[in-house]
Fold:
Amino acid sequence: MLAAITRAVSPAINQCELTNLERVPIDLETARRQHRGYEAVLGSLGVKVVSLPAEEDLPDSVFVEDAAVVLDECAVLTRPGAASRRPEVESIARALAPYRELFTIQAPARVDGGDVLMVGKTIYVGQSTRSDLSAVRQIQNILAPYGYIVRAVPVVGCLHLKSAVTQLSGDTLLINPAWVDRACFPGVMFLEVDPAEAYAANVLRVGDAVVYQPSFPRTLERLEKAGIHPLLVDQSELGKAEGALTCCSLLFNA
Ligand code: CIR
Structure:
């Protein structure tokens, strides 16, 4: 069965890190309601949701994806690129310990889980303001024994690799080619976001289902035309904190 670790929105969310967006007020109640909707959609897809309590002093801690990379064989605890986010990892380690053998990224390497995209046995690691080559090498060393190939991918203009590209189906990636080069992903097919919807490339795949945001109607139309009919969940309030769909869960086979 699939499990998802999630964490309630911190009351400090308005002090979140911001890289590419101007700060605008985030309504805590709206963010929490939308986040509960996200958890409910996961539950409706048969996912066992392990919901951690909110962390009062960790503004970005709802974005659990950044603290770990979970594979079938093990999990790698990250060392987040923003110093303010490093204390988030400890409680995620505790939550993952019953499920996986844990490895750790060592200082001074830095990586956010949002920069890590798994496509089969290939792991792409975005080279963003948050993640560096030293982390790529560590991930490679940890995962090579399990047969994974790890590749560094330059990312420009957005926070994370998965802001620019995510997996839509077994062989297709949803991509914003303005932020990442298609040539970095040999042998796969692409669906491009509508150019008017730069932030639309983050889709959450849950088994064979696809979860998406109603905020990107033009790209949604492209998905529908391609025969993909996503479940919709509004995450627009956390979008103001530069969060998207994948960042709010750690999804794995339990
Ligand atoms: C940050 O800047 O770290 C948070 N405000 C947003 C993190 C979003 N995480 C993700 O897309 N994986």
